[in-house]
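User: My collaborator and I are trying to settle a disagreement about how two of our proteins should look. Neither of us wants to argue from intuition anymore, so we agreed to look at predicted structures for both before our next call. Could you fold the first one, then the second, and keep them clearly separated?

Assistant: That sounds like a sensible way to settle it. I'll keep them separate. The first protein:
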Amino acid sequence: MTGLPAVVLGAGKSGAQLARALHAHPRVDLQAVVGGSSGSASELGRHLGVAAFNEPDDGWHVPSGGIVAVASPHERHVSQVLTGLAAGADVLVDKPVAIDGHGFERIAAAAAASGRGVSCGMVQRCSPDMVRCRDYLRERGEKIHAVAVSQFLRRESAYYAGWKGDPRAAGGGVLLNQAIHALDLALYLTGAVPLVARATLRSSRSIRVEDHVHAAVETDQGVLSLTATTCAAAEESQVIRVFLPTETVVIVGSETPRWRRVTSSVEEAIAELAARPVPFGPGHATWVDDAVRAWLSRTPALYECELELVRASHEVVYALYESAAQDGAAVSVASRRPSRRPVPGGAS
């Protein structure tokens, strides 16, 4: 049986994970990897035995009726996703779908018009354990009164030397590039509806994007607080605490998160869960498998990474940037207009 033709746009860390996952899938025929000028696509193509191109090169095309996987700098996501949809392909896109609400709405409209699928790489959702945690928490949604999210990641200043430190190419720093994962997971697990967002963004280094965010999001369940930081001296950690009347549910880790119900010794439980590291990447393969299965069968995906099911986390992020631009003013998430997010600029 001939597999679905696929092409990967981007050959960095996430692009390599997507390419490997698609290459290993029995129902997919990975035809090409397209990268920038660094030569990473050539190396990846040789490793996988597929064609490799730089973006300006001729010789590659978007496969009609196949799959386009987008893992390029954030500013390119909208145009590349739209190109894939226009060609009649389903699209896998690394987070964020778009750096602003206007771009998100363009993609949503194009996907609806084309009848093709768009799936976003919110890979922290993508494990059976997180489905079990989701089911447990959503059954108790009315009892949730607060959620606290903390994320601390080691990132040297050199990490921001390329496009990830360019506010126009990246769209933002720690909030849009890293914390969106943890925020999305918290919303996915609890089923909370975000209502009002407030944020403060700061850069503690000589970089042009924020490396610290402190935010509060009012939801129909209570308050979701978020603190996220990248710095050269951080010890990597991500913890989500969901507070219920008689217990706290803790979700620990950023690659394949684990969860536990705790009634006492919360910090001990967090330390125990964090002591079992998981290598980078298994979520990408699970996400790809789930999306391809859903597209082939035209049934809903298990991990709910379809475009409209990641809208809430993107809208919250856009609202948080808008709030930060207004010195932490409250911004209504539900009434946001797609064009209201300001042009990305340096962190204050």
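The second protein, kept apart from the first:
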Amino acid sequence: MSKNRGSVLQVVLVIFLILFTSLFSYCALMTRQYELTRYQKMMNQQRRIEILLRRYWRYTIDQDILLGDTFEMEDSVISYNVDDDGTDYIIDCEITTKSYHYTMQAKINMDSLDMHACTYGH
């Protein structure tokens, strides 16, 4: 009888370990999925702000001279300074939202209005 109790306890222990491992793995996967979704939303917001800033800068260059400014757009505070190096506008931009703060530097050709480079920093 004691041999049966030992084997039953071992089976229950193995089943408990399998359930615990499965539950732990599921929780770890859900946590990573949440982090990836949050990161994806942040990247989409950065991309959208970059597109809107490009459009705004091109429109401003077409209409007038591009100068530094600070404004709010879509729950973000954006401030930028413009440096003219002869052939390009070099724009240093700081973007602050509720959840993060980052910098962006862009180079726009004065003649073609094409953006050569756009680098991000934190």
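Some points you might bring to the call about the second protein. The helical segments are 2-63. The beta strands are 69-73, 76-84, 88-96, 101-109, 115-121.
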